[in-house]
Amino acid sequence: MTGLLSFFYFLLYTASAAHDFKFQTPVVERLSNELEVAWFEDRALPLVDLSLTVRSGHQDDPKGKSGLFELLASVLSQDVSQKRASADSVLLGDLGATHYVTSDDDSVTIGIHGLASDYEALLSVFSDLILKPIFTDAIITQEKRRLQTRWTQIAASAPELASLAYHRAVMGGTPYARGSISSMSELISITLEDIKAAYQTHFVPANTTLVVAGAFPKEITRRGVTGAFGSWSGPPPKKEPFTSTHPVARLSTREKGIFIDTPGEPLAQIRIGYLVASPMLEGRYEFLVANALLGGGASNSLLQALRDKEQLAFTIGSTLAYSRDAGVFAIGASTLPSKTGALITKVRELLRTFSTSTQSTETVESVKRKILGSAPIGLGATHLIASRWVAGSVLGLGPEYLNEMAEKISAVRPEGVLSVFKSVIERNRQVIVVAGDPIKTIPSLKAAGIWPLKRVKASEMVR
Amino acid sequence: MRAIISLFLLLLTGCEADEATLGLFSQLKISHLPNGLTVILVEDHRVPIVSYQTWVRTGSVDDPPSRSGMAHFMEHFMFKGTQKFEMGRFIQELERVGAEVNADTARDYTVFYENIPQSALPLVIELEADRLANIKIDKTKLALEKQIVLEEQSFKYQEDPSGQAQELLWPMAFALHPYRMPIMGNPSELVLITDAELEKFRKAHYQPGNVTLVVVGDFHHDDLLKQISTAYGSIPGLAPPERSFVAEPAQDSERQYRFNIPDVNERLALAYHITSASQDDSFALDILASILFEGTSALASRVLVQGSEIAWAVDGMAFTPAYPGLFLVTLTLRGKGNGPEAERIFSRLVNGISENGVSEKAVKAAKKQLQVQILDSLRTAKGIGHLIGTAQVILGDARKFIDDFKKYSKVTPADVQRVLRKYLDPNNRSTVFLLPDEVK
User: Fold this and answer.
1) Residues of chain A contacting residue B371, judged by C-beta atoms under 8 Å apart
2) Model-level pTM?
3) Interface confidence (ipTM) of the complex
4) A23, A362, A19: which is closest to B119 by C-alpha?
């Protein structure tokens, strides 16, 4: 999941007459080896950011090897330049630079950030990280242990357990069902050869975008990039996505959702929502507005109705996040175990009302103004714009999408919001996940008729 | 904007610069209203947004005796509404225009900020001036708000065990100074706060004489200053409340404590008494912290994580607030029962630097890291405002941090060794071993 929780920030601010603000768009070119390079020049500060995004992610883990791309990212995140034999090699630390590696369902991104005056040294270290990674059994074993520890920690966190179960349930039957790691046994089974094979298959120029942002010296940079990456080669990967459903998410016809036992937890965690269409399909702007209406911001409808007025929730809001081929809409809440059933009942009522009543024009216009006004705040610096641009590119959105969306959002009408929302809930099964103390929470669910749910232990979620 | 950056770089690389030509003084405009309100404005026309920040020179250090948590509680109450804008409306009005709204209480200050589209500036001036002048301490809301704060406290362990490890160090390290009290307060004292006490606190601290507005973004200075003067000018101001604390006696022997916390990992947290932000040793301490904890070649990480593999992660910082602070170290440990060994390994690392010093290369790298961090904070209007506001409330003058960067550039390996020997002494240390709850 690209985790575009702030998706509604990717919009042009419709400025007052005094301004005509547009987000910077890059100069894009393609090298002869098909590597796409996007240049975001910004001389305001003497900083430079280099990032490489590979358009393969968790959904490309081979069958039986879920966790491979997560592990690959984890291995790459080590400063492998420390391990090189040469005493002359420049360490990132010497440059005061930072680096990061992230992975999601559709991509892996490696980035480096430092002073513009060190550009050539940064490019040299960066190209080494990409083109000459060091994969050893020792590093892979170490990173597997790190990921296992991380997963152990998830078992102790009710909010993370609820979110993990929700993702698995809502994405069941799609290529995204396995998430970043489906099971520890699959992660442990990944070998050095698997890692090398994935790297060789997917880390090829035709499958990647290089972004250079900041105060880079133009001609030196162009020569440097061509010199560093010009001879990189490899055929585009053949992708074979397959659908699956995680065992935890396989429900009987009677089971209304999933209940995760988290004994002793003072609050119950709730996730309710639906699978939605991919960002490439019609209706995505209408759903953006719908999400903002329901649960975006600190004064959202859900919060006002269910926390402030009825005092049923401690926290509540909604999120909308897209991967390339699917999206997830989720209402997340925390509450006292004894109020869980009543809260879920009210949320479902609210969703039903929302899907049968047209919002007023005034309400929709107000939300649109909020979305449009927040755009430049979330993207108030070039490196942020560059990052969002490439994330949109991975989703299949066009190069001008940041500057097209104001018009698209402005065109949204209340009837369109209703139509799209209704379509989503009619076509897709509602998913309910609760993580809570079973002794205190289950009676509340039963009393509200939200039972049976499939009961799972926390340990099953991270097995 | 470019002038500010050029200045920073010149100073950090040790080049001399004539103060009179410093670009910052033409960019950073400081005004004082007759009622004592300080207004610092920085124009930045890169993006049509504004970061509007209200800095109150009041933090947990100002909590009255036996009423810890008062400052944090007051921060919460600033969102409870006035006669003109009833509760909830403050945030609703701002969110309607797409603003980001938040607040934070620290040990020495409280800051409220809004990041807004430029067109929303008149609205935010009106809202902020109104709540500074007219916030009501409503007795009927007191009980509910205490409940919210207590719940916020009790869930904090779950969300941030590492941060909680650091919080536990302060009451252990400080015997007398108010820094020993948690920012959110002791629950037993929080529940005792009355509306009369809170109102008294508000009158003394939340008034123009104790407040600095820092506004960075897309506006024109003269117009904005006029608007602010009109909105805030009639609010009565007082002298800033006096601060007078019992000096913390020097620690002369190590302190060790064990706690159980709801976490799956064992953690080790260390604290050494150090100096305050205004003292010159703070610069060498920052360089030391950078060498030990920052970046991919951080020394502590190489020894404790990659080398001995006794820890999953190690983090630390030289926390130099308005009064003498702490050098903090936190380790997330592998396995069970490794706290004492981890402490020994860290002590050996410290002793090694004490005997052999640090290299010129390491100091140079640390200075570069600091350069990058400072420049990063200048990437956004909010970051610029935060840098200025912090200097204003901690050092008393936003301009002082210009001199501070000159001092960073002058730190030598000998300085780093000296401060390590002076402060990272076991007799000056408090150690907390955090063990997972057995019951889960």
Assistant:
1) 96, 115
2) 0.89
3) 0.86
4) A19
